[in-house]
Design a protein that fits this description.
heterodimer; A: Four Helix Bundle (Hemerythrin (Met), subunit A); 78% helix; B: mainly alpha
Chain lengths: 178, 341
């Protein structure tokens, strides 16, 4: 049962990922990405990470993708079609083909590495600790990994401030600051 | 009672709780008109059945037999999908709300809630947050300016107020020490333990209630539909049952928000001054509390005027969000200094 669910979810995740690249309209890409995120959440659930699954949906599907939608609607990218269509046009150029080849090659290397389980020692150790419950996750996040956790928060803060500065400068330049 | 299979009990719970919510949505559609009539000194619907009580049934039949229009140039897949996307999340989230403590029927203990999740409130926020898709996609797929503007407004509004909603709930999670709604209820057994009885609880309650009005697109924050400016907003192009689905979704979302309000701040099924009350009394207490907040939704709608959109954004980002952040900080300090969960 869970194996069947896993394969189904993986299939949806992969199809969704392909749809993101192949969809002709930006809206089609967003819908594909949404399907992919949901499938990933199902995989997290199957692995027993309830919190991760909920966070995946809350943050990615519920917030980030909504923002994407918002931007797409504001920019009105492309004409609104009555149906979703796939397009392979972006893969016609030589550069795109090269990029695909590199990506597939890297993916294969990753696959072989995973098969041989030649992961670095620390990564293997980290995955051995159970972080399935919220309590354990909090202990890991605020205990052992508190420094990387803080570093990521600072990185996010820097990004936020940078975006504010960039957006603000443009507005002052136009002379219609509020 | 002991030899009834677990599956039968599950199905019974789902039918009762889910059916109860759908029935509440139907009753709310009548109550909205009845209460508004009462507040404006009118009669309201009173033709179908005694006191107009069968009006929701008549409406349902009418919705089913109306013609469904899909505008030319609309994205057919999304146009059909959007109402379901709007209604589904609020229907799913009722699953984790404990409508009572533990029922004892024929010597068998049955927890009164469809699902007992460790991450109950996370599940609720994650799934509930998806309701915005129905509104945005419906507005976009209609290929109409009014719908599009309604969808855009809904997106901006729901993102803005979801932050406040989550932060105000986080304060309660910190006070109760669990994400599990059953645990949050268990930590408020007596009236003195209710989260509303702490200073942070009061602020969180005010923020949560305001944010829940914005999240369900209700007055005074109903910019997504806003009849005088946008005709009907995101559902301008919708007719018949798809239009009805949007409304069922809205009423279900109101039911869930009211239940959550009762659960988080007023002890859910806890009966005041009777901590050891019978479970049936607890269910009744829960229904009364949730019912009051449902009434509040209607009460506010027919009392307050609609805000302007810039006022809404200013309120959300400059007042509600800082207050919610401050509240979370204060809750943390309270717990750190008193060691009291």
């Amino acid at each position: 049962m869970s194996a069947a669910l896993f394969y189904l979810a993986s299939l949806i995740a992969l199809c969704g990922a392909a749809g993101v690249i192949l969809a002709k309209s930006a809206m089609g890409s967003v819908i594909s990405l949404l399907a992919s995120f949901f499938a990933l959440a199902v995989i997290y659930l199957l692995a027993g990470f309830q919190f991760m699954a909920a966070a995946q949906i809350l943050v990615y599907a519920g917030a980030i993708l909504v923002l994407f939608l918002f931007v797409i609607m504001l920019l009105n990218l492309g004409a609104l079609g009555t149906k979703f269509e796939l397009s392979f046009a972006p893969f016609q150029s030589a550069r795109a083909k090269l990029a695909c080849a590199i990506a597939v090659g890297l993916g294969l290397i990753g696959l072989i590495a995973a098969q041989r389980a030649s992961l670095p020692e620390s990564v293997a150790q980290a995955s051995a600790e159970p972080i399935d419950s919220v309590h354990n996750l909090a202990l890991a996040l605020f205990g052992r990994y508190s420094l990387p956790f803080q570093a990521v928060s600072v990185l996010l803060l820097v990004t936020m401030v940078a975006v504010m500065v960039l957006a603000k400068r443009k507005r002052v330049g136009k002379g219609n600051e509020q | 009672m002991q030899d009834v299979p677990e599956l039968v009990i599950w199905i019974a719970k789902i039918v009762l709780i889910f059916g109860g919510m759908i029935a509440t949505a139907a009753i709310m559609s009548l109550a909205e008109r009845k209460v508004s009539a009462w507040m404006q000194y009118r009669y309201g619907p009173n033709r179908v059945g005694p006191f107009g009580l069968l009006q929701p049934l008549a409406d349902g039949v009418k919705f089913i037999f109306k013609e469904e229009l899909i505008p030319a140039g609309a994205n057919k897949l999304l146009f059909r999908l959007a109402p379901a996307l709007a209604a589904m999340p609020s229907m799913l989230t009722i699953a984790v709300i404990p409508i009572g403590t533990t029922a004892v029927i024929g010597g068998r203990e049955i927890p009164l809630g469809i699902a007992q999740l460790d991450i109950g409130i996370m599940y609720m926020l994650a799934i509930g947050g998806l309701g915005v898709y129905g509104v945005i996609l419906g507005g976009w797929a209609s290929n109409s300016k009014y719908s599009m503007l309604g969808g855009l407004r809904a997106a901006a509004q729901m993102i803005s107020y979801e932050l406040t909603l989550i932060l105000s709930i986080l304060a309660i999670v910190a006070l109760s020490g669990s994400l599990d709604l059953n645990e949050i209820v268990a930590s408020q057994r007596e009236i003195g333990d209710w989260n509303i009885c702490t200073p942070m609880g009061v602020l969180a309650f005010v923020l949560f209630t305001i944010a829940s009005f914005a999240e369900t697109n209700r007055h005074p924050f109903d910019f997504a539909e806003c009849e005088p400016e946008l005709v009907g907003g995101f559902h301008t192009e919708y007719s018949a049952m798809r239009f009805a689905l949007y409304f069922i979704g809205e009423y279900c979302a109101m039911t869930v928000m009211s239940s959550l309000n009762a659960t988080l701040f007023f002890g859910g099924p806890s009966v005041p001054f009777m901590p050891d009350a019978h479970w049936a009394l607890g269910v009744l207490a829960f229904l009364i509390k949730a019912g009051f907040f449902l009434f509040l939704f209607i009460w506010v709608r027919w009392t307050l005027p609609r805000l302007r959109f810039d006022q809404l954004m200013r309120l959300g980002w400059r007042v509600m969000l800082p207050l919610a952040l401050f509240n979370l900080l204060a809750t943390g300090a309270w717990i750190a200094f008193t060691g009291d969960h």
